[in-house]
TrEMBL record:
Organism from which the protein derives: Xanthocytophaga flava
Pfam family, one: TAL_FSA
Enzyme Commission code: 2.2.1.2
Entry similarity comment: Belongs to the transaldolase family. Type 3B subfamily.
Record-linked InterPro entries: Aldolase_TIM, TAL/FSA, Transaldolase_3B, Transaldolase_3B/F6P_aldolase, Transaldolase_AS, TSA/FSA_arc/bac
Protein name: Probable transaldolase
Stated role: Transaldolase is important for the balance of metabolites in the pentose-phosphate pathway.
Catalyzed chemical reaction(s): D-sedoheptulose 7-phosphate + D-glyceraldehyde 3-phosphate = D-erythrose 4-phosphate + beta-D-fructose 6-phosphate
CDD domains, per database record: Transaldolase_FSA
Keywords: Cytoplasm, Pentose shunt, Schiff base, Transferase
Amino acid sequence: MKFFIDTANLNEIREAHDLGVLDGVTTNPSLMAKEGITGKDNILKHYKDICNIVDNNVSAEVIATDFAGMIREGEELAEIDEKIVVKIPMIKDGIKAIKYFSEKGIRTNCTLVFSAGQALLAAKAGASYVSPFIGRLDDVATDGLDLIEQIVTIYQNYGYETEILAASVRHPMHIVKCAELGADVMTGPLSAILALLKHPLTDVGLEKFLADYRKGNA
Ligand code: E4P
């Protein structure tokens, strides 16, 4: 399973990268705004800064919602660095743009996916990644993990190569369950990834090992 971090915060991206388990970064316009990154030049530079930290897979989202605009923005984003994956919303022109980019060999991440039908369309258009937002489904009393299970089945039935990127991950059990279900990638906050580390028996066990060592080596 690939681990992506869902943030535009360079310090968090560095911390996750230094852990040695980071495979990529996802951003969105809200995350960029949260970091105070505004204006085209600053936004493009920020994506480059992220690319300079991580090894691959930096999702950068288009703002346009029409086909021509998405192509223009997507090509500009793809030129920043070969690590860029152009993130495109699940709308009609978005599907057309994904098809266009897949034929040009530019990787895409189809975002804002909330149903199996949308995921099927994204795969048919040739998206590199599809992003079902599981946390936001949970927020409206619909089990986001059920959607992951459905997409895994559908993609296996037809051998689609689109990778399932479980997005809007909120906590460590989302990650564990997505791994059980066979999601290819997860993206979430650094806190959810770091929470995987924790178990009280690990802490108690380590304390005991070290105390026993100190007794014998005082
Ligand atoms: C995915 O790429 C999105 O950026 C993200 O996972 C949305 O998560 P949220 O629902 O926590 O905002």
